[in-house]
Amino acid sequence: MSFYIAGTGSALPQKVVTNDDLATFLDTSDEWIRTRTGIRSRHVLTDERLDDLAIASAKTAMGEAGASGAELDLILCATMRADTFTPSLACTVAEAVGATAPAFDLNAACVGVLYAMEIADSFISSGKAKTVLIVSAEAMSKLLDWTDRASCVLFGDGAGAMVVRAGEGRLAGVLSTKPDSHVIRMPNIEGLNSPYNEIAQEKLAMHMDGGEVYKFAVNAMGRNIEEACARAGLTPADIDWYLPHQANLRIIDASLKKFKIDKSKVLTNIAECGNMSATSVMVLLDQFAKKGTFKRGDKLLFVAFGGGLTSGAVIITWNKD
Ligand code: UT7
Question: Of 96, 9, 114, 19, whose CA–CA distance to 51 is shortest?
């Protein structure tokens, strides 16, 4: 027994920031950002709370699944930066939806939703849970160095959610880590206020070696697709829809090229959303589900890479009309 996806939701901040908007204070251009990444604009938090977007997307997913708060057996939130260290975002969502199930946040950077799906699968297949709420919300705009044109143009903010229930749906999953503490690094504020802290503080913003991430990403995405398909007894050609992490259109194209997949099977929203870290695949899923793209029985493959360095892929059968 594994799980199927019973409902999805997403919520994006109101404010849209275009590449031209960024060019008003950065030495960059719409042309550079579009041709190097595929990004045209992104949503950025202004006066909204990330919590509220997470709760809105959770309620939409629960409404679609017909799941009450009392019915949830587990709540997982994939995030690198909740509004509060404690309560966790998962507990904040639990309070808002009237749940008392175990609830915790997990950080696997951009692969967080895939890690959450695999944890949900373990709880469900071991009989510990029947209904799990997975939420992801990222406020990337609050983690960036807005003077670093090589990284701040890439990201956006947003939230998404899915309810998964015990049943047939998940076909295979693969997760891995290639530990590296330099290629993508985002220090937190640990020890900042302690009088005993003698370790020099790092600048509190993302540092990234874009070229190294690019090489890792192309290799990891391809390898995870192959491994997940092998575990499911499928070939990449058997997959109906690819939902890749939305980091860079060139990374998506380069990692899928060897599989000779029809490009119309590869879903993207990077042009309008940029890279929302873990939340990217969740929002992508909800947007295309709401458009009616998926038919019952379709095979969907999620694939992602991120800081850590983490990577993974999950294949599911779409089980909704
Ligand atoms: O979720 C994971 C997060 N991270 C990623 O996915 C990042 C993966 N890496 C990438 O997407 C690409 O490496 C980037 C988009 C970050 C960079 O693209 P690139 O084609 O590898 O460019 P580059 O780093 O080789 O830079 C080329 C030039 C440099 O100028 P010089 O040294 O040739 O004079 C950069 O300074 O482009 C310059 N540059 C920019 N120019 C205008 C870097 N950022 C910008 C910018 N606007 N925003």
Answer: 96
Domains in the chain: ranges and CATH: 2-168 (3.40.47.10), 172-317 (3.40.47.10)
Look at the alpha carbons of 88, 92, 97, 100 in this order and tell me if their dihedral is positive or negative. positive
Cβ of residue 87 lying under 6 Å from some atom of ligand 1: no
With 0-12 CB in 10 A as exposed, 13-18 as middle and 19+ as buried, what is 274?
A: buried
What mean pLDDT, rounded, does the chain reach? 95
Query: Using only C-alpha atoms, what is the Rg of the chain?
Result: 19
**What's the CA-to-centroid distance between 170 and ligand 1, angstroms?**
36
* pLDDT at residue 193, rounded to an integer: 66
pLDDT digits (tens, 9 = 90+) for 266-285: 999 999 999 999 999 999 99
Q: How confident is the model at residue 260 (pLDDT cuts 50, 70, 90)?
A: very high
Residue minimizing CA distance to atom 47 of ligand 1: 28
**What confidence score (pLDDT) does residue 199 get?**
67
d(CA 87, CA 221): 33
**Burial annotation 249-262 (CB, 10 A radius, 16+ → b, else e):** bebbebbbeebebe
Q: How far is the CA of 207 from the centre of ligand 1 (A)?
A: 13
Backbone angle region of 19, left / alpha / beta, with phi > 0 → left and psi within -120 to 50 → alpha: alpha
For the cut 70, the answer to whether the pLDDT of residue 191 exceeds it is no
